[in-house]
Structure formats: C-alpha cells, structure tokens
Design a protein that fits this description.
The complex is a heterotetramer.
Chain A lengths: L3 H6 L2 H33 L13 H28 L2 H33 L7 H22 L3 H33 L14 H33 L3 H8 L2
Helix pairs in contact in A: 2-7, 3-4, 3-5, 3-6, 3-7, 4-5, 4-7, 5-6
Chain B lengths: L5 E10 L2 E11 L4 E5 L6 H8 L7 E6 L2 E2 L4 H5 L2 E4 L11 H10 L6 H10 L15 H14 L4 E5 L7 H16 L3 E5 L11 E5 L4
Parallel strand pairs in B: 3-8, 3-9, 6-7, 7-8
Antiparallel strand pairs in B: 1-2, 1-4, 4-5
Chain D lengths: L1 H5 L4 H43 L1
The chains are: A mainly alpha, B alpha/beta, C mainly alpha, D mainly alpha.
C-alpha cells in the first residue's frame, strides 16, 4: 500500500535518528540569526520618531507573540494528526510543544507589559492583543495541567490532544471576541500598543528575529522530541542501540 | 474466504508500563463458548474490553466474520453485549426503569417483553424497588435480564456468576446454553467454573508472565 | 427463534436512543432535587454578595449588573458540570453508551441538552430576579432572559467538553475550571454585552446573534469532542 | 557606549525585556536538554529492569 513509506518515515527509530541529525542544522542558523538580529535591532535600526528607543522592545515582544501562536498551532496540528492516525510520534511532538509555547507566551506578556508602562503609563492595559495572549497562556496551562493530571501516559496523550484541537478552534473566536469587546470600551486617548510604522532598517531585524526564533523552536522541539519518543517506546532493541551512543 | 465468528490474533496490550496481554490469540466460531481463566491481574478484564473494541491494542488484530472490527466499530458494537463485573444500574431508578433506559437505547421494547424478562430472572417481586435497595445478587440478575432482552450474537461476560446463589448460577448456564443453541457466541472471563457441561466450553488460561 | 447473525431487527434509532438518554437524565435529576437546586442557590448568593461588597445604591449597581449576572451564571453552570458525566462513568453507564452501536455524539448531545434544561434554563428564569435586585429596569427582562438562555446553551456545550476531558481524574474541580473558563470567554463577552444593552434600554440583537452563532457552532462541534473524550476515558 | 546603554531614557524597559526573553531562550535550551537526559535515564532503568526479568 502507498502508506508504507509514510509509516516507515514516521517510525520512532527513524524519527529519533533524524531528529538527532537535524538538530544542529536548525540550532546554529537560529543562533546566528538571533545574534545578527540583536545587533540590527539594538544598534543599526534608528530610533522611532514617536517612541524613541522604547520601540526596540518590539524585537523581543513581537517574535515571542509569534512563537506563542505558532507553537500552539503546531501542537494542535500534531495532536489532530496523532488522534486521527494513532501516531505516537505525533503525540510526542504535541507533548514537546507545550512547555516551549507557554514559556514564550510568558515572555510576550512580560515584554508587552514592559512596553506598555512607558507608552500608556500603566503596567497592564486591557489591550486586545495582550488580553488574547493572557488567555492563550491559560490554554497552555490547562493543556499542561490536564496532561500532568492523567497518570496513564497513553490516555494523557489522547485526552490532551482533544483539548489542543478544541483550543485551536477557539483561539480565533477568542481573539475576535476580545477585539470586539475592546472596541466597545476603548478610550480614544489611549495609544494602541501597535507596531509603529517600520522603515526597512527597522523591519529587517524584526523579520530576522522571527525567523531565528522559529528555527530555534524547531531545534528545541527536536531535542525534546527525542526524549518524548523514548518515553513512549516499548521495543527495546533500538533503544539499547540509541542509548549506547 | 471469511470465517464466521470472532477471531483474535496475537493481541498485545499495554496498560501504562505493564505489558498486560502478550500475544493472546483465539478463534471463537458460532455456537462456541470461550472460558477465559487466570489469577487476578492476569488481564481477563483487559482482554474482554479489548475484544469489544474499548481498548485499542498495541498490536494484533480483532476480526468479526473475517473483518477488522476497528474499521467499523459501531457495526461491531451493534452485534455485541458486554457486561462488566458491576451492572450499570442507577441507585435512584427501579430495576424495571433501569432496564428500560439501558436496553431502550439499543432496541425497542414493550412493557410485556420487559416484564417477561424480569420474570425469567425471578425479579418480578422486586422490579419496582429502587436499585439502591437491591442486593449484589439481585443487581446481577437485572444484568441477566438485560442480556436475555438483547438478542445480539456476541456476549462478553465478566464474572457472570459472582454473587449469585445456586439457582442464579444455574440460570446463567441455561441462558448461555440457549444462546449457543441459536448460534450465539459467548466469551466469559471468570476464575470460577462455568455452570455448563465441560464439553461445550473452550478454555483459555491467562498467566502473569 | 430469532436470527443471531445481525443486530436485533427492532433496533432503536439514534433519535429514540437520544430521547431515552434525555428522559433518563431528567428523571434522575427530579429524584435528586437537592443537586438540582445547588447551582441556582449559588447563583442567587453570589449576586446578593455584590450589593454588600459594592454599595446598596441601585444606580451604581446598575452599572455592573450585567457583569455580575454573567460571572455568577458562568460560575454556577461550572459548578453543575462536575455531575454531568461523573456518576455515569462510575457505574458503567458511559461504557454501555459507547458500546451501544449508536453514535456516541448523539447520546452526548442528549446528555448536554438535559444538563442545559436542568441548569441553563432555570438560570435564565432566575436571572431577571437577580437583575431587578441589582437595579435593572423591568423592561430589560426579555433581553436578559434571552441572552442568558442562549448563552447557557453554549456554556453547557463547552462545559460538556471540559467535563468529558477530566473524567479519568480523581480531583477534577480546579482543572475543570482552568479548562472551561478560557474557552467560555467569548460567551461571557457577548452575553454580558447583550444584557448590558438590555438594561440600558438599547437594542441588543447584535450581541444576541453572536451568542446564537456560538451556540450553533457549539451544537455542531462540542458533542463530537466530548464523545471523543469519553471514548478515550474508557480506554 | 553610555548613550547606548541609556536607550534614550528607556533603559529600564528595554533591557529587562531583552533579559527576560533571552532568559526564556536559554532556559528552553536547558530544559530541553535536561528533559532528554531524564528520558534517557528512565529508558536505561526500564531496559535494566526488563533485562533482570529475562
């Protein structure tokens, strides 16, 4: 059947070795991109005409916010694949995603708050994007809480996968409702925490940082994935081989 | 050429870190009865639950009339009846009500049919009492009534004779024999003897290792 | 003697099965009224706490009435969720549902419908009383009843997913709240807005329609998710 | 250099946000490696237990 290549590709030993081999190919470019983007963002980019040097927080805030959503989406897609085709490797991917995504969601919230204080004069503003980010953090915490609370590992995988899929259906609805709610109550004097209009020397480091973070995510995911595969694997022969290296 | 009945091939099942079923296999033809025995924790209940498609095995196949049951579970479920070691009765409902709501989700039943089934298991006297007041043996009898009401081919019974008096055990034997005679299949897990002639029963012994 | 090669010839249809599931849950609830009254009592108590905590001035209370009403309704419906599947999971009823050969999605829908009839609908009928005590004008009553009634449909459906996901757990209360509340946020926003507009005598159709859209989306998707979660809990 | 560190008066906001985010980056590396190490140790223990059985 035409599925055999797919199953061989998705077989745990194959994925384990592939993850091991691929990690440096993502880790080093990620490191180089992040360093270059740091230099570009902190030194080369000119200050914003309105926010001065304060706008440089965007190089940390926006990529973190991007990560929080991108990782959640990855997790939900992996969970759906795992549920539909009963693929253990996909469960391992979903399990690896959650702590990474949650940590970057926290970073996005903290940097958003640090950005808000000089711009709005308050540490927390019920800005629609920050509020959505906070709800996203709750979704991550719920996912990890559910996974941690179920003792049987297989059931934990499958139950939390259902939650991840339910969550991703809700993310756009939550974001829409929060934006709608905010538009009702917005005081006109408050400046939106938004991207200032970015000139090219400002934009390039931002895109580099986002790409760097994305590659970094893949690298960390590959490392975590190996651990999660080992936990789920029963066949001893290749584990013995892998552990001896 | 598809064979009729239930076939289990090389079933491996894990519960967490425990390798509970290690390559279990058997074939149960129409009119056949398989008695699964073994000490506590040997995986009798797990085997039964895997055989009705509730547990998804790590490897191995489960065939009904030659077709993999996991390809179409609802159809497979509509030919089987599983009774666990506790009858699923609500304390606040009477035996009759329990039976109506339980079997009614699968088969249309009239009052008379229900009454006849209750009489068959000797429940007429207490069929209107809330299940809360019933003894373990009486609850088991309600489960037997459910079994006799639902004329599906495959019965999966977990400890069918527990808590029953001698007469109740004999009733289990009679019900099974009638079922086998009309071409039904029975898979029963118990460490007691089944109240049936030995010649009618295949045995499958599960061990710890 | 009947043929044993196929399922029973007089097999029940999904609708008949779902109707029986619904009837059964309603019968059970009526025999156990205490459990039925608890969420309602909770709702009333929470809404009476606010005047004591804020001020007895009706003008001030009116400003927060819609929010108070909805947070209390959300928590009250959450309170009732723990009982939704728990007893059925313990005594093996869910197992029988999963093995009935009927689509489990349909039976889950029936159970959720029963849950709404037993908590959402009474809450919608109680809500005007609470709103009046918080200074809402009598004209606001239809809007409040409509928004709470429609909103609790969505809440029951979202809640059924949470309840099904936490089935295998010994202590599920806090986790159930952590899973359900973020997902319920849109319902809270649209519901509170509809009630607020009703209290201020303004047209509230737009948020009510959004609530209805959420309820419809929930009706189509939530039973699928809770059926999947229930099956997994039986593994 | 002084001027750079001052960030046009926004130093108190810019540097902590860089510190927090980069700390999250570094912690992710540490956590990922330690989680892999833990899983490897657990797998080794399981293999040893299985070996003792046989």
């Amino acid at each position: 059947m035409s599925w055999t290549w797919f199953h061989r590709l998705a077989s745990p030993p194959h994925i384990y070795r592939l993850a091991q081999r691929l990690t440096p190919w993502f880790a080093w470019p990620a490191g180089a991109l992040i360093l270059a983007a740091l230099y570009g963002g902190l030194v080369l980019a000119p200050p914003d005409y309105q926010q001065g040097d304060g706008f440089r927080i965007i190089y940390m805030h926006a990529p973190s916010a991007w990560m929080s959503l991108m990782v959640y989406t990855t997790m939900a897609v992996a969970a759906a694949v795992a549920l539909i085709w009963r693929m253990k490797v996909a469960h391992a991917v979903a399990a690896s995603c959650a702590p990474i995504g949650a940590s970057f969601t926290i970073a996005a919230l903290v940097t958003g708050s640090l950005w808000g204080e000089p711009m709005w004069g308050t540490w927390w503003e019920w800005d629609p994007r920050l509020t959505s980010e906070l709800i996203l953090l709750f979704l991550y915490l719920g996912y990890m809480g559910l996974r941690g609370a179920i003792e049987d590992p297989q059931r934990a995988d499958r139950t939390s996968a259902v939650l991840a899929v339910v969550g991703i259906v809700n993310v756009p609805i939550i974001h829409y409702s929060v934006t709608w709610w905010n538009s009702l109550h917005q005081a006109p004097s408050v400046m939106r925490l938004g991207k200032p209009t970015l000139s090219t020397p400002m934009l390039v480091p931002l895109l580099m940082m986002m790409l760097g973070f994305t590659l970094f995510f893949v690298a960390v995911l590959l490392v975590r994935l190996r651990g999660e595969i080992l936990v789920r694997e029963r066949s001893a022969s290749w584990i013995r081989e892998v552990l001896s290296t | 050429m598809p064979r009729e009945g239930l076939e289990v091939e090389n079933l491996h099942l894990w519960r967490g870190e425990h390798h509970v079923l290690r390559g279990v296999g058997f074939a149960l033809p129409r009119g056949g009865c398989l008695h699964v025995t073994g000490p506590n924790g040997a995986g009798k209940t797990s085997l039964l639950r895997a055989a009705c498609g509730l547990l998804y095995p790590e490897s191995g196949r489960l065939l009904w009339d030659g077709r993999d049951v996991h390809e179409d579970l609802p159809t497979f479920h509509s030919v089987l009846m599983y009774i666990g070691h506790e009858a699923p009765l609500k304390a606040d409902l009477s035996a009759r009500e329990n039976l109506r709501y339980w079997i009614g989700t699968r088969r249309r039943i009239g009052r008379d049919t229900l009454g006849a089934a209750l009489q068959r298991v000797g429940a007429t006297a207490w069929s209107e009492r809330p299940a809360r007041t019933l003894s373990a043996g009486q609850r088991r009898r309600v489960a037997l009534a459910a079994l006799s009401l639902l004329l599906v081919p495959l019965w999966l019974l977990d400890e069918p004779t527990t808590n029953l008096d001698a007469e109740g055990q004999q009733l289990v034997g009679t019900l099974i024999e009638e079922h086998l005679a009309r071409g039904g299949l029975v898979l029963a897990a118990t460490h007691h003897e089944l109240p049936l002639p030995r010649s009618r029963v295949q045995r499958l012994e599960l061990t710890h290792e | 003697m009947s043929d044993t090669r196929t399922a029973a010839p007089d097999a029940a249809s999904v609708l008949e099965a779902a109707r029986l599931v619904l009837e059964r849950d309603l019968t059970l609830a009526l025999r156990r009224r205490g459990q039925l009254v608890q969420p309602l009592a909770f709702f009333v108590i929470v809404t009476t706490l606010f005047p004591l905590a804020i001020s007895p001035e009706l003008a001030r209370l009116r400003e927060v009435a819609a929010g108070v009403l909805w947070v209390a309704a959300l928590l009250a419906s959450l309170l009732a969720l723990e009982f939704l599947f728990r007893d059925d999971a313990y005594d093996g009823t869910l197992e029988q549902y999963a093995l009935s050969g009927q689509p489990l999605t349909g039976l889950m829908f029936a159970k959720t419908a029963a849950h709404w009839l037993l908590t959402g609908l009474p809450l919608a009928l109680m809500a005007p009383l609470a709103a009046l005590s918080l200074g809402a004008p009598p004209d606001a009553v239809p809007g409040i009843v409509a928004s709470v009634a429609v909103g609790t449909i969505a809440l029951s459906l979202i809640g059924s997913i949470g309840a099904a996901l936490t089935l295998g757990l010994r202590r599920s209360g806090v986790l159930l709240a952590l899973l359900t509340l973020p997902l319920s946020l849109p319902v809270l926003i649209f519901g509170a807005r509809a009630s607020e507009l009703a209290i201020h005598g303004e047209p509230y159709v737009a948020p009510l329609e959004l609530l209805a859209a959420l309820a419809v989306l929930g009706i189509t998707l939530a039973p699928l998710a809770s059926a999947a979660a229930v099956r997994i809990s039986l593994e | 250099m002084r001027e750079f560190l001052d960030m046009g008066g926004y130093a108190a906001f810019v540097w902590p946000s860089y510190a927090v985010t980069l700390a999250v980056v570094v912690l992710n590396i540490v956590w990922a490696r330690s989680s892999l190490a833990r899983s490897r140790a657990a797998a080794r223990r399981r293999l040893a237990a299985a070996g003792a059985d046989a």
